[in-house]
Design brief:
Elements (H helix, E strand, L loop, with lengths): L3 H19 L4 H4 L2 E2 L2 E5 H17 L8 H10 L5 H21 L2 H22 L8 H21 L3 E6 L2 E5 L4 E6 L2 H8 L5 H5 L2 E3 L4 H4 L12
Parallel strand pairs: 3-5
Antiparallel strand pairs: 1-2, 3-4, 5-6
Helix pairs in contact: 1-5, 1-6, 1-7, 3-4, 3-5, 3-6, 6-7
């Protein structure tokens, strides 16, 4: 289990990478639509991750994670300059990191999973691939594979062996009943709903492809290559 100290450090690292990616963007670049999140521009993704920190600090958690909750974060910051959004994020950091430290480790790691997911959404929009071995991605990977295991246990599906270029991970308990092999980044992006069902089923599976047990968010309707 990832410790809260590790999650806080990983979140901060992801935050700093996002700031470096966007702080010098002009309005046109900030307005580019993100292929991974076609309803949101780069600036909307920034507004969302900043808005989460504000809502956590304010205790505005009713409907957390829902579409109306996230849409309100973006709408409230729709026309604010990127510099103001980044300043708000930095201002929120101390109370937000304190709030993270008070969470159970599962929820703290989930915060890293979310912000790192959006880092790569932004990278895709800006054609700036990178940081695929970051602490943020590693924390997000550990969290996501753990949830995949919980889902498989709940379905009584048995454990899934996940094979990547960085080694193997067993998701779930009990006997291994299937396996999937692909690059870690593609598997992780599939877990975040950034790959289509066709892409997921094209991974190297032993046993029946189980996208419903791998995709923690709904799979895309169309393929996304990053």
């Amino acid at each position: 289990m990832t410790s809260n100290e590790e999650s806080i450090a990983a979140y901060r690292g992801t935050m700093e990478r996002i700031v470096a990616l966007v702080e010098d963007l002009d309005d046109d670049a900030a307005g580019v639509m993100a292929p991974a999140t076609p309803d949101w521009r780069v600036r909307d993704l920034v507004a969302h991750v900043v808005g989460i920190t504000g809502d956590v600090i304010a205790g505005n958690l009713e409907g957390a994670g829902s579409d109306p909750w996230t849409a309100a974060q973006v709408l409230a910051r729709h026309d604010r300059p990127l510099g103001e959004l980044l300043a708000e994020w930095e201002s929120n950091w101390e109370p937000f990191s304190t709030a993270m430290d008070a969470l159970d480790p599962f929820r703290a790691a989930q915060s890293v999973f979310d912000v790192t997911t959006h880092e790569h959404d932004i990278r895709g929009a800006l054609d700036q691939a990178g940081a695929r071995d970051s602490d943020g991605l590693l924390v997000g990977w550990a969290w996501a594979t753990g949830v995949v295991g919980q889902l498989r246990d709940g379905y009584g599906a048995g454990a899934l062996l996940i094979e990547t270029e960085h080694g193997d991970t067993t998701a779930g308990t009990g006997d291994v009943t299937g396996s999937v092999r692909a690059e870690r980044f593609d598997l992780w992006r599939a877990m975040t709903g950034r790959r289509s069902v066709e892409q997921v089923e094209a991974f190297a599976w032993e046993g029946e492809p189980a996208s419903q047990h791998l995709c923690l968010l709904p799979a895309r309707a169309t393929p996304l290559v990053e």
